[in-house]
User: Which sequence fits this backbone?
């Protein structure tokens, strides 16, 4: 920057202070917990971003998982009421509505609460798991109860952040705050790659201890809810539910034939495939989907 003529020492100091302040880390805005019922954790700078329009579906449209749905609703209702409840790991087949169910259950529980403070949902991204203690430090002083939700949680080789999660959930000196519960979805039951566990078993001096260290993370979740591939009848039931909800005009025979052909071309059946078919069907029919 060219030197200003007759620049005073005070002007130089002001410019120096301004330059240094630009190098300082961003200051996190104060968290406004009352701004919404759902938030996304922005780890840098450490801010709860309100989400006023949540991407979720009605719980009645999630089919083929009735048993795990009821268990999750019961666990969430007990937690919202201040009663003991467990951390939950929703694991299993992809596209079967694991993350959709968490968001739908949160909405259902809040809708059924008569009085009292609403249950809050806070999403934390997988890559920000190591900031979980900082987030819990913010939440534990708030007069609300929180579901911490991490979608598609898993850990790869040489990733040690799972140890931070273990300590934050149950193992630390302070432990999990009483007003916080942790829900996670994953395609893996033990959250770690199978070959990673097998490699630990084959190379460790004490194989059993090495494996215990890796799989003990999933033990921090008191509830394991398994999601499995759906049958043809369950797949068609999902589609029929979507079609009724969105009031799409199509003959049942044509709907069944189109739905089965769609699943064949995709090579799989799941809730996600059923929803993708519904979007395609609505587009071909020239009919809008409900917001």
Assistant:
């Amino acid at each position: 920057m060219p030197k200003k003529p007759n620049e005073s020492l005070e002007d130089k100091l002001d410019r120096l202070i301004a330059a240094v302040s630009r190098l300082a880390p961003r200051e996190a805005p104060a968290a406004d917990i009352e701004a919404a019922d759902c938030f996304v954790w922005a780890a840098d700078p450490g801010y709860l971003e309100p989400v006023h329009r949540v991407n979720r579906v009605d719980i009645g449209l999630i089919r083929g998982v009735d048993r795990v749905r009821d268990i999750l609703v019961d666990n969430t209702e007990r937690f919202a009421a201040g009663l003991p409840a467990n951390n939950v790991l929703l694991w299993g087949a992809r596209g079967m509505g694991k993350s959709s169910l968490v968001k739908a259950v949160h909405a259902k529980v809040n809708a059924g609460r008569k009085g009292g403070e609403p249950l809050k949902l806070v999403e934390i991204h997988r890559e920000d798991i190591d900031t979980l203690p900082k987030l819990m430090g913010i939440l534990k002083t708030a007069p609300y109860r929180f579901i911490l939700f991490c979608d598609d949680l898993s850990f790869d080789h040489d990733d040690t952040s799972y140890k931070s999660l273990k300590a934050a959930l149950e193992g630390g000196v302070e432990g999990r705050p009483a007003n916080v519960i942790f829900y996670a979805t994953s395609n893996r039951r033990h959250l770690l790659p199978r070959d990673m566990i097998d490699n630990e078993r084959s190379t460790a001096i004490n194989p059993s201890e090495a494996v215990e260290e890796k799989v003990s993370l999933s033990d921090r979740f008191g509830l394991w809810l398994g999601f499995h591939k759906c049958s043809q009848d369950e797949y068609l039931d999902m589609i029929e539910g979507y079609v009724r909800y969105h009031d799409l005009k199509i003959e049942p025979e044509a709907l069944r034939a189109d739905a089965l052909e769609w699943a064949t071309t995709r090579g799989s059946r799941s809730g996600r495939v059923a929803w993708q078919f519904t979007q395609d069907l609505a587009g071909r029919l020239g009919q809008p989907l409900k917001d």
In short: Residues 9-23 form the longest helix (15 residues). Residues 93 and 234 are 14 Å apart (CA to CA). The chain has a mean pLDDT of 84. The beta strands are 38-42, 47-50, 88-92, 120-123, 146-150, 180-186, 223-227.
